[in-house]
Amino acid sequence: MTTWRSVPLRTLEDIVRFEREMPLQQRIGARSVLDVFIESAQRHSQRTALTMVMTGQDDEQPRRVNYRELLGLIRRSANLFHSLAGPRPGVAYMLPSLIETHVTLWGAQAAGFAVPINYLLQVQHIADLIRVSGASVLVALGPHPQLAIWDKALEIKALLPHLQLVCVAPASTPATDAALDFHTLLMQQADDHLVFGEAGRDDDVAAYFHTGGTTGVPKLVEHSHRNQIAAAFGGTALLHSNETHVSFNGNPLFHVAGIILGSLSPFMAGAEVVVLSPLGFRNPVIVRRYWKLVQKYRATRIGGVPTAIGALCDVAVDGADLSSVQLGVCGAASIPMSVVQRFEAHTGHPLHEALGMTETAGLTCVDPAFGDRVLGSVGFRLPYTQVVIRRLNPDGSLGGVCAPEEIGVLTVAGPTVSRGYLDPEQSKGVFVDGLLNTGDLAYASADGRIHIAGRTKDLIIRSGHNIDPLMIEEAMSKHPAVTMAAAVSQPDVYAGELPVCYLSLREPGAATQAQLHDWAQHHIAERPAWPKHFYLVPSIPVTAVGKIFKPQLRADATERLVLRIVEESLGLNQLRVAAHEGGKRGMTVTVTLARTQANLAAKIEQALASYLFESVVVVE
């Protein structure tokens, strides 16, 4: 059985003492993810494990599953997948957040390995992910009035005929010859044991998670059972979770944050996980009624990604009783301090940051629940892991260890670190002898707290001056007219890169360009970091889990530049320009001309030749 600590971990010294008390393999009894559910069912058989909120309305009677029932469903699921595809099957799924999604995920990891799929991706990209992963089963949501998942699943089945397609749909849904019915087959399986012997464990592959962009060669991160268990345990230890807690989860169950910190970690503690509707924070009703739901379900742990936190702060508490809340947790991306302060003023409860990435099984550092909360810090490393800030050599390789307060590259080692990407070529330079080069710029304070200073790829380098985009975003987010800010680089012929900032405003016309520039000059200390341009947009693109999608913004900034150059130098104001990250110079721009404009191709190539991006002129 897993051995906990009665006294909360508050400092790095506490973590070190915790590690010295006993090694990890003695402290954690679970060797497989299934063991986590077996232990929790033994300890908390009748306690609610999952509460499924569908509508968020006051009169809703949610579906609840206790730990004994959840373990039985997971065993049924594991037996089902084994019966469909034999030993160690790969099971991909395209599902919103449902109890069936949990049953599919954890059952797949017990029988073989899971491949969580973002169902918002394009069909061809999903097919490529499934093909590369080696999955032979696809579980998908059946026909639905709002979600077009089933149509995608049928297209994927046509592209990958070997797939066994399993449909998750209400009993009233008409049967289809194209797929097997999940619920019917599930109830035919044993729920008190695994028919095939032991579940996967230790260094066996538990899952492959998609990470990176949405185009190009699929990048799948391998998770072992040891990785996920160690990460979940670390989160539980630093947040001092226990069976009395009620944890809200509005993150999708195809993303590592929703799966590890949002689910497996509280399950390990015997806590109750409340699933905030199939669409989570993408459901406007959930956002609008969030504080009433906190009161109704007596939530103790709340939070989400920065964009979700910002949206929740725009909703009035309106008299809701938040006395059950102990703390908020925010992760998945850097959060502006202004949003942290808004949350705490709004709720009266502290917001603790966590740092996680897919390559470390979803969790790297956590600001301890009962430690001194420090604004701007993601807290301390997980127990039994090593987090070291290293200098970056001129050739891009990792150098020596940084002194306290010195910015360098954050590296991680230990049981949470993946063995790498499924494609070994993609692991080069990222996974080196068990060490993960995260690509995060960070520094450690004297007491061992970790502070993130930006991503190396997101870093804006203006004439050799390194600019942290978070500095710009923090300042502009404080402007009373701004709801969201995202700073990225724009190519420049002289400086190499210039900072530009995308802003969404609370209402159109709420601030002028002159006012925004004036605000920047008074609130951004470094003159080189003053944005060259502000681009006002209705909304800033985010990923399915709420991270700002900066590759799209960098491409848009490049397209705007090219259009401006061509208009100023050649007088053309209607031109097709498309930019995307990639290629030998990091960014590739394609300018498409009509045949009647073919004589301008050479002039356009000359006008763009001095920039650091790769440009291609195409005549149709």
Structure description:
The chain has 620 residues and is α/β, with parallel strands linked by helices. The protein has three domains: 12-450, 3-Layer(aba) Sandwich (Rossmann fold), CATH 3.40.50.12780; 460-544, GMP Synthetase, Chain A, domain 3; 551-619, BolA-like (GMP Synthetase, Chain A, domain 3), CATH 3.30.300. It contains 19 helices and 30 strands. The strands form eight sheets. Strands 17, 18, 19, 20, 21 and 22 form a six-stranded antiparallel beta sheet that branches. Strands 4-3-5-6-7 form a five-stranded parallel beta sheet, sandwiched between helices. Strands 12-13-14-15-16 form a five-stranded mixed beta sheet. α13 packs across α14. The mean pLDDT is 90.
Describe this protein with a few key phrases.
Rossmann fold, six-stranded antiparallel β-sheet, GMP Synthetase, Chain A, domain 3, five-stranded parallel β-sheet, 3 domains, 19 helices, 25% strand, globular, alpha/beta
- CATH C-level class of the largest domain is Alpha Beta
Helical content stands at 25-40%
What separation lies between the terminal Cα atoms? Answer: 68 Å
For the largest beta-sheet, the strand count, sense and barrel status come to: 6 strands, antiparallel
> Given the helix and strand composition, which structural class is it?
alpha/beta
Number of helices: 19
Total number of beta strands: 30
Strand % is: 25-35%
What name does CATH use for the topology of the largest domain? Rossmann fold
